[in-house]
């Protein structure tokens, strides 16, 4: 005869706790002491307990699934370290729960409509959104549906929505001030898109220190940084420093500067924004404003889990600090 499948009662008995405590651990509740949680998880592992999700979901009306929607093409998710860092942070925080992550990249209106139809209580318990633009209707639609929602990035317009963001303006100021302190006289900026809060805030911080006469715009991608750098050299051949609002744009700028015969940093200093690992291996290594992407992902998850548990976190707007990491390009 086969052994009977272990039940929640079996788990509770093995762990030496009540059934309710064991159930709260299985359901991912935070209302359990660390010791009890450890005992229950150990019992689950020893017994090979598998919750009956289908039966439980009929009672709780929960799907045990949350969505992460990234409003960028899929290739950027896999090539730009910022996105990978956010996803790693979310995944590490969710590993401590029973929740599953549903990931979607949204680029076209057709994809947006498809995702909009999916984001209902029948499919997911909550939503996190990354890289949203000012004209994106999805945050408002999710909010209207009543689903818990957390954004990565301060919303530029619309209602108050819980969000996690880097101190982008401070990062722009740090970069500009450092370049001024190094005696650079013609400092330019390759700004990010102005329909995104990060693009607006990084440029605002830069302008507060360095002024605003030498600015070109990109979309955070490497190719857009290359195009902007070429335009800056045409406008002002004497430019001697560049702050790019993302590391990929800084890499594109460095490529154009080298092709134009400019030495980095002797002729032109370059600072990026992200602090991505690739910057340590560029030629020269890229000075960059570091933003803790993994921490941001973990904080997003924390805010969403609090909503799912019916708790109101003490803060719904989390700003994480930035710092300047000095390397060879500046």
From TrEMBL:
A GO term, aspect molecular function: transcription cis-regulatory region binding
Organism domain of life: Bacteria
Coiled-coil residue windows: none
Keywords: DNA-binding, Transcription, Transcription regulation
A Pfam cross-reference name: Peripla_BP_3
CDD domains per UniProt: HTH_LacI (cd01392), PBP1_LacI_sugar_binding-like (cd06267)
Entries under Gene3D superfamilies matching the protein: 3.40.50.2300, lambda repressor-like DNA-binding domains
Residue span, HTH lacI-type domain: 6-60
Protein name: LacI family transcriptional regulator
Organism: Kribbella antibiotica
Organism lineage string: Bacteria, Bacillati, Actinomycetota, Actinomycetes, Propionibacteriales
């Amino acid at each position: 005869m086969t052994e009977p499948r272990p039940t929640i009662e079996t788990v509770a008995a093995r762990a030496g706790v009540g059934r309710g405590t064991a159930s709260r651990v299985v359901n991912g509740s935070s209302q359990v002491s660390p010791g009890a949680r450890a005992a229950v998880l150990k019992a689950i592992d020893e017994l090979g307990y598998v919750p009956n999700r289908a039966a439980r979901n009929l009672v709780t009306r929960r799907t045990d699934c949350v969505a992460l929607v990234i409003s960028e093409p899929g290739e950027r998710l896999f090539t730009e370290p910022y996105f990978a860092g956010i996803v790693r942070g979310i995944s590490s925080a969710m590993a401590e729960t029973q929740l599953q992550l549903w990931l979607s990249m949204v680029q076209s209106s057709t994809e947006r409509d498809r995702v909009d139809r999916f984001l209902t209580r029948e499919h997911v318990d909550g939503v996190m959104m990354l890289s949203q633009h000012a004209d994106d209707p999805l945050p408002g639609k999710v909010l209207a549906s009543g689903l818990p929602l957390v954004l990565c990035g301060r919303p530029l317009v619309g209602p108050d929505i819980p969000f996690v963001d880097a101190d982008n303006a401070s990062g722009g100021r740090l970069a500009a001030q450092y370049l001024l302190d190094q005696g650079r006289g013609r400092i330019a900026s390759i700004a990010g898109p102005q329909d995104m809060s990060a693009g607006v805030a990084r440029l605002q911080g830069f302008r507060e220190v360095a002024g605003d006469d030498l600015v070109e715009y990109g979309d955070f991608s490497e190719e857009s940084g290359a195009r902007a750098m070429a335009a800056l050299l045409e406008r002002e051949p004497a430019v001697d420093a560049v702050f790019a609002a993302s590391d990929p744009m800084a890499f594109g700028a460095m490529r154009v500067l080298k092709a134009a015969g400019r030495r980095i940093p002797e002729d032109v200093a370059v600072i990026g924004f992200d602090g991505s690992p690739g910057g340590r291996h560029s030629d020269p290594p890229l000075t960059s404003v570091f933003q803790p992407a993994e921490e941001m992902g973990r904080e997003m998850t924390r805010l969403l889990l609090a909503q799912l548990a019916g708790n109101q976190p003490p803060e719904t707007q989390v700003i994480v600090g930035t710092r300047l990491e000095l390397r060879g390009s500046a």
